[in-house]
Amino acid sequence: MVTWAELIGLPASQFYRITHPLNIYDSPALSSLATQAWAGRYLQLFNLPPEKTSYRTGHEILLWEDQYPGWLAGEDLAHLEPTPLLSPPKQLKRDEILQRIPAIIEFCHMAKTRCHTYLWGGTLGPSYDCSGLIQASFAAMGIWLPRDAYQQEGFVAPIPNPGVNPDDLVPYLESGDLVFFGTPSKATHVGLYLGGGEYLHSSGKDQGRNGIGMDSLLGQDHPNPDPISQAYYQQFRGAGRVMTSFSPNL
Asked: Name one GO molecular function term (predicted).
């Protein structure tokens, strides 16, 4: 644990190791969860005031491994310890990632069996949002991805669809590929492709299963069409393959 006096004596954007699971918020008001960070991750802390502030004051941070910005509650500063400048993690190649895909899929299946609900910003489990589940499952196997669905879509190698419907792309997909949904302009949802046209994802209450479930890209060709699968089918944007791991720029 680091004291406030020690914190203010450190240079701006000092690196810290997280010693306890943390909630990261999307604004200094700390009213909406953006993501979560598990113990052992690293962050940079910016613009620390010279005097101790309220435990509900938001402090600007940048999570290191995925370069994700956010705000940390003052009460959670006690869960940081200063650490020297970090070296970028090893960037994995496709063959190394491919070996880990079965364990990534197993991670998601195990998460599905635990008592949980959909949680916007959830990354720690047992409750996840869509991209939080994807990031956590890959990170558990040493593969870092960006945090949000649209960022993940931009990071992976796109898989061209020779047709116009999701069904047309299915023969070209491999287990462990990411499948994306949303509007014509932006990906807002992501799932993990399992094979046979099926994918696993964490979806919300308004359009989904309020947690982790399996759905299909086969549309009306599925032997048992499901309304949730059909809704996502209509919002399908495409798919991508994880060819390498994300590496932060220092």
From this structure: cysteine-type peptidase activity
pLDDT of residue 87: 80
Domain CATH number, residue 103: 3.90.1720.10
Residue 4 pLDDT: 46
Let me know: does 228 contact 215? Beta carbons within 8 Å: yes
When pLDDT is averaged across residues 82-103 and rounded to a whole number, the result is 91
Place 203 in a pLDDT band, splitting at 50, 70 and 90: very high
Is residue 21 a contact partner of residue 125, using CB atoms and an 8 Å limit?
no
Question: Is position 98 within any domain?
Answer: yes
Identity of residue 16: Y
Cα 159 from Cα 203, distance rounded (Å): 23
31 and 117 assigned to the same domain: no
Same domain for 99 and 171, yes or no, is: yes
Domain residues for the domain of 62 are: 4-82
Calpha distance 233→221 (Å, rounded): 12
Total domains in the chain come to 2
